[in-house]
Write a structure and sequence with these properties.
The protein contains three helices and no strands. The protein is mainly α. Bound molecules: zinc ion. The site of zinc ion has 8 residues, from helix 2.
Protein backbone atom coordinates (compact mmCIF):
# COMPACT_ATOMS: atom_id res chain seq x y z
CA UNK A 1 0.00 0.00 0.00
CA UNK A 2 1.39 3.34 -0.98
CA UNK A 3 1.59 5.90 1.78
CA UNK A 4 -0.26 9.10 1.02
CA UNK A 5 1.79 12.12 1.93
CA UNK A 6 -0.14 15.25 2.61
CA UNK A 7 2.58 17.80 2.71
CA UNK A 8 2.24 21.50 2.39
CA UNK A 9 4.73 24.14 1.44
CA UNK A 10 6.69 25.56 4.34
CA UNK A 11 6.71 29.02 2.82
CA UNK A 12 3.38 29.61 1.02
CA UNK A 13 1.15 26.89 2.55
CA UNK A 14 0.34 25.38 -0.85
CA UNK A 15 -1.31 22.04 -0.07
CA UNK A 16 -0.86 18.56 -1.47
CA UNK A 17 2.67 18.82 -2.78
CA UNK A 18 3.37 16.27 -5.49
CA UNK A 19 5.73 13.33 -5.13
CA UNK A 20 8.09 15.14 -7.48
CA UNK A 21 8.09 18.19 -5.25
CA UNK A 22 8.72 16.16 -2.12
CA UNK A 23 11.35 14.05 -3.87
CA UNK A 24 13.33 17.01 -5.08
CA UNK A 25 13.21 18.60 -1.61
CA UNK A 26 14.76 15.43 -0.23
CA UNK A 27 17.34 15.32 -2.98
CA UNK A 28 18.40 18.93 -2.61
CA UNK A 29 17.87 19.53 1.11
CA UNK A 30 18.52 16.08 2.56
CA UNK A 31 16.40 12.95 2.99
CA UNK A 32 15.71 13.76 6.64
CA UNK A 33 13.82 16.97 5.91
CA UNK A 34 10.34 16.97 7.40
CA UNK A 35 9.17 20.22 5.90
CA UNK A 36 8.97 20.84 2.20
CA UNK A 37 8.80 23.68 -0.26
CA UNK A 38 6.67 23.75 -3.40
CA UNK A 39 8.63 24.14 -6.63
CA UNK A 40 8.23 27.90 -6.74
CA UNK A 41 9.37 28.44 -3.16
CA UNK A 42 12.18 25.90 -3.48
CA UNK A 43 13.46 27.75 -6.52
CA UNK A 44 13.29 31.04 -4.63
CA UNK A 45 15.02 29.49 -1.62
CA UNK A 46 17.83 28.11 -3.77
CA UNK A 47 17.93 31.23 -5.93
CA UNK A 48 17.38 29.34 -9.18
CA UNK A 49 14.58 29.17 -11.77
CA UNK A 50 11.67 26.76 -11.48
CA UNK A 51 12.85 25.27 -14.79
CA UNK A 52 16.21 24.45 -13.18
CA UNK A 53 14.36 22.46 -10.55
CA UNK A 54 12.11 20.65 -13.03
CA UNK A 55 15.20 19.83 -15.11
CA UNK A 56 16.79 18.32 -12.00
CA UNK A 57 13.68 16.24 -11.35
CA UNK A 58 13.86 14.86 -14.88
CA UNK A 59 17.57 14.13 -14.44
CA UNK A 60 16.99 12.22 -11.22
CA UNK A 61 14.10 10.31 -12.78
CA UNK A 62 16.32 9.39 -15.71
CA UNK A 63 18.86 8.06 -13.24
CA UNK A 64 16.12 5.90 -11.72
CA UNK A 65 16.11 7.65 -8.38
CA UNK A 66 13.80 5.87 -5.93
CA UNK A 67 12.47 9.12 -4.52
CA UNK A 68 10.55 9.69 -7.74
CA UNK A 69 8.97 6.25 -8.15
ZN1 LIG B 1 5.41 27.45 -1.74
Amino acid sequence: MRKIIKAKCLACDKLNLSKDEIGINKKLLGEEVKEFYCLECLATYLEVNVEDITDKIEEFKAEGCKLFD
